[in-house]
Design brief:
Helix content is about 70%, strand content about 5%. The chain has about 240 residues and is mainly alpha-helical. It starts with a helix and ends in an 8-residue tail after the last helix.
């Protein structure tokens, strides 16, 4: 098996978890309802009961289901779903891009993390990390003339680079944990013309303050960046109605 095929391969249990997980996200079955029995799922998906059992464990780890002995497997309320799980966010992606509530909550969560990450980066980033931050800003500016994918990748890389430069393992892990959620939020924002150009100066200011070791200035610059992001979020078109 070549390297590309090895990277693309996923286990049978992961495949079943994805199928059932997407169905749960779509509301079938709905929160509180029970899934078919293990044997029924095995037959329906053409796999062994062990594969189904492992798939249910994967979904339980994501907060989607709970397994109660002698009662079966039931879908948990949405408030218990792990919104930082990459698989779950991918399954919910289409809805979340148009979910104004999700996007507003994401801005609030970013305010709890990113200003302090910028402040700490100004205090503790190494020379190599400062150079990487400057490069990330240049890449983001160059992405204005690129396609949406390049803009998304560049914007996400910019923010993760700041979290990494904080040299705080908790900030770094948090920044990476919300990475896919950030990507969804950026996709919603960047599909609207003018949003990235209108906030690019704030991005540049954050990096300038970090490189200058201006901790307070870096924190304030990140707040200004998020202020603009919140304003842009508020101007997004209303969520689609089914």
């Amino acid at each position: 098996m070549d390297a590309a095929a090895d990277i693309a391969w996923i286990s049978g249990s992961e495949q079943i978890a994805a199928r059932v997980g997407r169905a749960i996200v779509a509301g079938d079955p709905a929160p509180g309802e029970r899934l078919p029995r293990e044997a029924e799922l095995a037959i329906a998906h053409g796999v062994s009961r062990n594969t189904v059992r492992e798939a249910m464990r994967l979904l339980m780890a994501k907060g989607l289901v709970e397994i109660v002995p002698r009662r079966g497997t039931a879908v948990r309320p949405r408030k218990f779903w792990n919104v930082l799980d990459g698989d779950l966010l991918r399954w919910c992606a289409e809805d979340l891009r148009h979910d104004a509530g999700f996007l507003r909550e994401l801005v609030v969560a970013r305010r709890m993390v990113e200003p302090m990450a910028a402040r700490q980066a100004a205090l503790s980033a190494t020379d190599v990390q400062r150079a990487l931050l400057v490069d990330a800003q240049r890449r983001l500016a160059a992405a204005l003339d690129a396609d949406l994918t390049e803009m998304l990748d560049s914007d996400l890389a910019f923010h993760i680079a700041i979290a990494d430069a904080s040299n705080n393992r908790f900030v770094r892990a948090t920044g990476r944990a919300i990475g896919y959620a950030l990507q969804l939020g950026f996709e919603a924002l960047l599909t609207e013309p003018g949003n990235l150009p209108g906030n690019l100066a704030n991005h540049a200011d954050v990096i300038e303050r970090i490189v200058a070791r201006d901790a307070i200035g870096a924190e304030q610059a990140m707040h200004r960046l998020l202020d603009q992001s919140e304003t842009d979020t508020g101007r997004l078109p209303s969520p689609r109605r089914n």
